[in-house]
Write the structure tokens for this entry.
Amino acid sequence: MQVFFEKIREKLIFKIIPDKNDKDRNQKLGEHSQFMYRTLDGSEFPDVHPDRLALVALLNTLPFVSDSLNFGWPVSDRFKQATKIVSRIDFTFIDGKVEPIHRCDTGRHALSFSGGADSTAALAVMPHSSEPVFMLRSKRKSRTLYDSHAAHESCRQLSKLGFNINIIESDFEYLRDPIGFPTDLSVSTPAILIAESRGFESIAFGTILESAYGTSGEKFREYSNSSHYRLWNRMFESVGLGYSLPIAGVSEVGSSLICKIHPIGRFHQSCIRGKWEDPCNKCWKCFRKETLMAALTNTRLSPISVSMIKSSKEVKRRLIDDKPIKHEGVLAFSLNNIQGGGPVVDSLRNLVRAKEIDTDWMRHWYPKSLDLIDHDYRDFTISKLNELIGEMNMDQIDALESWENHNHEEREKRLDSFKSVLSLA
């Protein structure tokens, strides 16, 4: 694959030329041969260091590259050395002398912001000078359920509180077919591109414990030893940016608690299909968040949640087909801390072991995650986390680190029972 870029006034445009091997490697590589970034106010797109341009290209093409990626511009030797961590790909660059870009010392940090609970919780525990960067998805004729209305309102409300909100439009998700982010960190590419002009020292993500430490799936993992961390931490550092995960030690339960307690929490909405304060109440996120908030407010399970289990195709598919269910532990926490729901919900409680497993640790933050917080504001964030939700005790840490949720014969029996009850509902 070859990749080039050009800047035209308010737009920065990347063009790719895949080869046959690329298309054979990943069938999700779509037909679009370019992706762009655009300022919304019509101002000229800022200049970007060649290494950061290369990181943006890599974040958006890596899953589609078979064996070689040729950049149509020169980069620094430091960036070249960093790419060697990806051993399966041969990286080539245009000849030219480029000095590496070093981390600046401004005290200003970026947050890749979505408007949801997790990124809002991350913002709540970062210094107030932090700047959210929101990626506005370009609208095309392709069918999509995404609606940016709620996220835009979150940005507007935070701006009124004094936050400097940056919004950059992009269409990189159309590289993929079906549309979607090429990598999980692609969403940070607008922040990378404006980091030089805004003087960002680091870029933070609203990655939560379930994603970082594997408890959304089958088994706890040490994230700092993972290939994901080793790759992207190294690549961000090679372009003079810190890679920061301020709430990596916070469960989805904890991030929802932070949003419930902290004043800016009222300006989030996790549903990306509904309008502001009018979620769709059909999607998996709505089901999970609605159920969790009932647990955190000590109310009975709402008829909306019960209805979604019975009538939402997406919710039913997640509950039945995912083995284990994504964020199953959070669902167990929720169903253990609320009453009501009837036979279907009781059967779901049995499936996710709501009354059997320890989930109390999800209310607090995992102190061993502190090294994942950027060093420049680590002490500040730790103080805020302790203030808002407190840290896990040793028993809770043991419960987290011993987390396992494998699919096995007993779980299959429970699933069959749930499907049977659901079919009668």
About this structure: Residues 280-360+406-424 form one domain. The first strand starts at residue 2 and ends at 8.
